[in-house]
């Protein structure tokens, strides 16, 4: 990644996840690995989907929601 792209990306991340630019710069090294819990604490993610089938509403729930629009 070129220097300008890195600065833009780190600035974007810094703004949206509330970590300092310097911390993000240090932590984006190739050797930086974190667990799902650490990613949530770091604010990289809001959560982790363990079962993708439970992440979406059922077809019946979707049908109920769209009844008013048809």
Automatic annotation (TrEMBL):
This is Uncharacterized protein. It holds the Pfam family CLP_protease. Gene3D superfamilies: 2-enoyl-CoA Hydratase, Chain A, domain 1 (3.90.226.10).
